[in-house]
Write a structure and sequence with these properties.
This protein is of the alpha+beta class and about 500 residues long. The chain is about 35% helix and about 25% strand. β1 and β2 form a beta hairpin.
Length: about 500
C-alpha cells in the first residue's frame, strides 16, 4: 500500500520529504548528504536546463566545461573567496590505494599539491581566461557551464541543500565596469523571468547585504521566493566581481590605446535547489503540483475499459488518436495502458504532479467526449473530442497562470511592513535555546523593516530570531526611518525572513 503523505499542517518538513518520495523525484544515497535524482526529477531538471540554456545563448553566452578538480593554491589566490569556502571544501590528497596490514585499503601515493573538489569554478576558469584574453577584441567573454559541485554541508535536505548538486555557473569578462554591471543585472532578469514565467514562482529581486554577498564579489544580486511555510528561498544569484579576481589571476587585456588593463568580471548561478522551490511553492497534501511549462508530462491519458476485448481496443484507439493530436500541438503526452485499476493510476499521476488528466471510457466514446481533470484544483469537465485541440492548450495556460496568481497572493498575504522590535517579534519571535533551525514559530513571512546598515545589528537580529536579510529590494522606495532593532537612522526597508 502506498505511503500516506504527511499533511503540511502536521509536519511541513516531513511533508516535503514525502512529496519527493511519492512523486519519485529522488532517492537516498549510500553517501551521506548526497541524493540520487530519479528519472522524473531529472526530467524536470532537463526542462529547466533546456529553457535557461536557450535564454543564456540568446545573449551570446557559450557553453564550455572545466575540470572538477582545482589546485589548492588557486583557491588561496583570492583571500575573501578562500575564506568564504574554506569550511565547505572536499580535498583530494592521495591518488592510489594499497592493502594495509589488516587487509583494508589505505591511501598510498600523496599528491604533490592537494586538489579541491569543485565548490565553484571562479579560480580554475579565471586562470584559463588569463591566457585566452589578450586584447579588447577578445571581450566580452561570456562562458557558462552545466556541471556538478561539492560543498561539505553538515545539515542536508534533498534538492535544498546537498553535498553534491547540479547547477549552471556563468562567468563573464568585460572591458568596463559599466558593461559588467549591465551583465550582472541582465542575467538576474533572466532568472526572474524564467522563475516567474516558467516555474510560476513569484520572486523579489534585490541586492544582498555585505555580510550575505558572494565571497570575493563587489556586490551580489538575487531573487527571493516565498514557500508555503512562509520561509524564503534564494532561487538564483548574479554577482558583480569587480576586478578582484582579475587582479588575483592576472586577467588583463590591451585596450584600444595599447595600454594594459585589468578586466571586470561577473559570475552567476542557479542550481537544483530551484526544484525544491518548485515543490514547496505549489504542491499540496496529495503530492507534487507542476506548472505546465516545466512539467515533463503535461497530459496523461488514461483509457478505461471493461472485460470485452473490442471495448478495450476501441478505447485504446481513441486514446492513441487523442495523444497523437495533442503531441502534434507540441505537448508532452503519456498514455497509461497498464492493466491496473483506474483509481490506482489516477492516484499515481496525481502524486507526480501531471497538470492535466484525460479519462476515456466506453460511455465517453458513445458521447464523443472525454473527462478532463486539472491537477491544481481537482476540477473536472467534459470536453468534446473535436474540441480537445483548442481546450487542452487553453486549460494548460489557465493552470500556469492560476498557479502563479495563487503563489503571488500567498506572498502578498504574508508580507508586511513592521516598525518596531515588538512588532517584528510578533511575527518572527526570538528563537528559543535549542530550537531547530526549521522550527515553526510565529506567523513568519517577509517582514519589510528598516535596518541601520550595520553588520553587527544584522548579525544580532539573526542570532535572536534566526531571520536574515534576504535582500534589499530594487524597487523599494527611499524613506526616512529607524532601525527595527537599534533605532539607528535608515533610508530604506529591507526584507527579513527565515530561510532555507
Amino acid at each position: 500500500m502506498a505511503k500516506k503523505i504527511t499533511s503540511r499542517e502536521e509536519n511541513y518538513s516531513q511533508w516535503y520529504l514525502d512529496v519527493i518520495d511519492a512523486a519519485q523525484l529522488a532517492d537516498s544515497s549510500p553517501v551521506r548528504g548526497c541524493m540520487i535524482i530519479r528519472p522524473h526529477g531529472y526530467a524536470i531538471w532537463e526542462n529547466i536546463q533546456k529553457e535557461l540554456d536557450r535564454m543564456f545563448k540568446e545573449t551570446g553566452v557559450k557553453n564550455a566545461y572545466f575540470p572538477l578538480f582545482i589546485p589548492k593554491s588557486f583557491l588561496e589566490k583570492e583571500a575573501k573567496h578562500a575564506e568564504g569556502f574554506a569550511k565547505e571544501v572536499a580535498i583530494v590528497t592521495h591518488h592510489r590505494l594499497k592493502q594495509g596490514e589488516n587487509g583494508k585499503l589505505v591511501p598510498d601515493a600523496p599528491l604533490e599539491e592537494p586538489l579541491i573538489v569543485r565548490p565553484t569554478s571562479e579560480t580554475i576558469m579565471y586562470d584559463t581566461f588569463s591566457r585566452w584574453i589578450q586584447s579588447y577584441r577578445d571581450l566580452p567573454l561570456l562562458i557558462n557551464q552545466w556541471c556538478n559541485v561539492v560543498r561539505w554541508e553538515l545539515r542536508t535536505r534533498p534538492f535544498l541543500r546537498t553535498m553534491e548538486f547540479l547547477w549552471q555557473e556563468g562567468h563573464t569578462v568585460h572591458a568596463t565596469k559599466e558593461e559588467a554591471d549591465r551583465e550582472t543585472l541582465a542575467i538576474l532578469e533572466i532568472y526572474r523571468k524564467f522563475t516567474e514565467e516558467h516555474l510560476a514562482v513569484p520572486v523579489i529581486a534585490g541586492y544582498k547585504t555585505e555580510s550575505e554577498k558572494f565571497a570575493g564579489a563587489d556586490y551580489t544580486t538575487c531573487i527571493e521566493a516565498m514557500m508555503q511555510d512562509t520561509k524564503a528561498l534564494q532561487a538564483g544569484t548574479s554577482h558583480m566581481l569587480g576586478q578582484n579576481f582579475a587582479k588575483s589571476f592576472e586577467v588583463k587585456f590591451l585596450d584600444e590605446k595599447g595600454e594594459s588593463r585589468y578586466a571586470w568580471q561577473t559570475s552567476w548561478g542557479l542550481s537544483t535547489r530551484i526544484i525544491g522551490a518548485l515543490i514547496m511553492a505549489h504542491s499540496d497534501d496529495k503530492g507534487l503540483v507542476l506548472p505546465p511549462k516545466i512539467a515533463p508530462i503535461q497530459v496523461v491519458i488514461i483509457p478505461i475499459w471493461g472485460e470485452k476485448e473490442e471495448e478495450k481496443n476501441n478505447v485504446f484507439g481513441a486514446a492513441d488518436n487523442m495523444a497523437e493530436k495533442l503531441k502534434n500541438l507540441g505537448l508532452s503526452v503519456e498514455t497509461d495502458k497498464r492493466d491496473a485499476r483506474p483509481g490506482v493510476k489516477f492516484f499515481e499521476w496525481e502524486k507526480k504532479g501531471v497538470p492535466v488528466r484525460i479519462e476515456i471510457g466506453p460511455k465517453d466514446l458513445e458521447a464523443d467526449s472525454m473527462i478532463v481533470v486539472r491537477r491544481d484544483t481537482g476540477e473536472k469537465e467534459t470536453v468534446a473530442m473535436d474540441s480537445a485541440e483548442k481546450r487542452i492548450p487553453a486549460l494548460l495556460e489557465e493552470i500556469q497562470k492560476g498557479l502563479y496568481e495563487k503563489a503571488l497572493k500567498f506572498r502578498k498575504d504574508n508580507m508586511r511592513a513592521v516598525n518596531s522590535w515588538e512588532e517584528f517579534t510578533g511575527y518572527i519571535p526570538e528563537a528559543k535555546e535549542g530550537e531547530a533551525e526549521d522550527a515553526k514559530s510565529g506567523k513568519g513571512g517577509f517582514l519589510l523593516a528598516h535596518w541601520c546598515g550595520q553588520a553587527e545589528c544584522e548579525a544580532k537580529i539573526k542570532a535572536l530570531t534566526k531571520a536574515t536579510i534576504r535582500c534589499i529590494p530594487f524597487d523599494q522606495p527611499e524613506e526616512d526611518g529607524r532601525c527595527v532593532l537599534c533605532g539607528g537612522a535608515s533610508k530604506k526597508r529591507v526584507i527579513f525572513a527565515k530561510a532555507y
